[in-house]
Amino acid sequence: MKLKAILPLLTLGALALQAEPLAADTAVFQQADASSPVIARLKSGTNADSVGEAPAGWRRVEVEGQFEAFVHTRDITKSLDVREGSNLLTAPQKNAAVLTVAQKGDKTDIVGVRGDYCQVQVTKKIQGFIAVGATANRPAAAAPALPAAPTTPPPVAAPPTTAPGRAVATDNTADLPRLFSGTLVLARRPLINPNPPYDYQLTDTSGRRFAYVDTKRLLLTEKLESYLERHVVVTGTVRNTVDGKDLVVAAESIQLK
Question: Do 192 and 136 lie in a common domain?
Answer without folding.
Answer: no
